[in-house]
Amino acid sequence: MATLLRQELGWYVLGLVIAIIVGLLAEQFLLIPLLFSIIYSLWMLVRMSAIVDWLEAGAVVKKAPPTLGLTDHIIGLTHREKKYSRKQKNRYRTALAQFNSLAAELPDATVLLDEYKQIRWSNNAARLLLNIHPERDRSQRIDNLIRDPEFQEFLALPEATEMELVSPAGRNVTLHLRKVPSGKGMTVLIATDITQRVKTREMRKAFVGDVSHELRTPLTVINGYLEILQGDNTLPEKTHDALKQVAEHSARMQHIVDHLLELSKLEGSHLNDHEGEPVKVANLINSLVSGLQNATGKDHRFELAIDDTLALLGSENEVVSACHNLITNAVNYTSAGTLIKVAWRKNSQGQPTLDVIDEGAGIEARHLPRLSERFYRVDTGRSRESGGTGLGLAIVKHATQRHGGELLIDSQPGKGSHFSIVFPATRAIDLSESTSN
Ligand code: ADP
């Protein structure tokens, strides 16, 4: 730029020198250089205004005004910028076309919703899986097209992010829906076909259920004969010792089969928000604790903080099972004489919460995420010794999830463990209200 300016100035100075010489020769020393300067400035203005006109008319290269020097350079630069931005525009257009065709062909149904839940855009898979047509249904409210009440609730609740839905397009397809907020009130709804996964899950559940059921009958027969044999005093002592061991293993198997059956009933299903009976959890805990105090002989100290006006809307058997598993674990995995705290009350957010806190050896952090998996044990020997099946926490987790709750585990080696079940606030029943009425 500086060179151009110097060049432009050079031309002007040269012209001025010539004008001075001509002025001297013509004895018009001032007039001719002044005239030259005025004409040069006017010429400059004309060049500038031609460029402005050209720019205003769209800067078409072929229609660029004939010019030179600085103004010519401005035209050159504009031309280069235009070429660059045209290239960029083409690049963006190609990328957008590629993205559009990719999104249109995604195997997952994708629907873009605006703040009023109106469809802004949908892909081809949305037609197959959700029966939403990309053109026909644009600008329609999605809840007018998918009328499932659970879906409508899912759409309305900001905290709901995932759900399973039977495809409105029929064909016995199960979908997994995800809701992703995408700025300025927009939402992306993604639906994946999980029919195969659901079938496999159902098959596995049925298989485990069937096998456990099939094992139950022979086990009952074996246990019956074992009882008869154990009662036979004519048998030698060695045989009695062997029978005792067989009986212990058989009882363990019975326990595993019972737990597997219980788990297969709980898995993959959930109670509706208002489904269940009023469960008096306080009474359950009190009788569980006194039963354990009498049975284990380990002489644990229990500290109870129980709100007996708080009941839970849920399934009594499942709540009993969850409380039983957590409290027996606290007994089984701690030493005699240690303190076990059990609390049943609302937390600060009004959610009914069961806390079981022990002073046992605790669990290393690496085990915590896997603790509620089937057959996962930190200390297999101790688990077997205490009659554990490795299924207790899996049962607790599934029973909790069926109630819309969450199992939380916090533990520190050497300090003890804290297991909590947090139920949704909507499941709380205030018994003081019903007794005072
Ligand atoms: P189990 O029938 O073996 O007790 P669970 O599913 O109830 O199976 O528990 C899984 C494992 O978690 C147990 O084997 C044990 O190693 C560990 N665990 C459970 N509760 C406690 C606890 N309160 N303290 C220490 N470890 C525990």
What do you see in this structure?
The chain has four domains: 2-101, no CATH class; 105-193, Beta-Lactamase (2-Layer Sandwich); 197-266, Helix Hairpins; 277-436, Heat Shock Protein 90 (2-Layer Sandwich), CATH 3.30.565.10. The protein has 13 helices and 13 strands. The protein has helices at residues 2-25, 31-56, 70-104, 124-130, 142-145, 149-156, 195-230, 237-266, 281-296, 316-332, 380-385, 392-402, 431-436; strands at 109-113, 119-122, 162-166, 174-181, 187-193, 277-279, 301-306, 310-314, 339-346, 352-358, 406-412, 416-422, 428-430. β9 and β10 (352-358) form a beta hairpin. α8 (237-266) runs parallel beside α12 (392-402), α9 (281-296) runs parallel beside α10 and α10 (316-332) packs antiparallel against α12 (392-402). It starts with a helix and ends with a helix. Adenosine-5'-diphosphate (ADP) binds next to α10 and α12.
